[in-house]
Specification:
about 130 residues, four-stranded antiparallel sheet, alpha+beta, four-stranded mixed sheet
Length: about 130
Amino acid sequence: HSELQLTTEPIDEQRLAASRSLDGGSGAVITFLGVVRGVEGEQHIGGLGYEAFELMARHQFEKIFLAAAHRWPIDSLRLVHRLGPVRVNEPSLWVEVIAPHRGEAFAACQFVIDEMKRLVPIWKRVIPS
């Protein structure tokens, strides 16, 4: 099972956790929260604005999710990426991987994030402070 959300709404970790579905074989739940830093390069910023070519982004995420599921026994993979303006200290990315074991869950989570940065057409622009 995989789920993707590209949204302009704030990421609600509590709601996402409450909607988590576990089965008896799940032994690890890994979540990652990417938060906007207050510095980009050497410039202090107020936030980042995210834009996406959504149709292609969805296609690339689907390919990444399939590749991860092919490599590791994943029970569930969910990803939420913010679009539009995201202020400093607000989350722009949330990833959850549920798998039988922690090593598989950590590896799959790292893979998904690395491949997202490499392949998915989502761009960021600096919002001045």
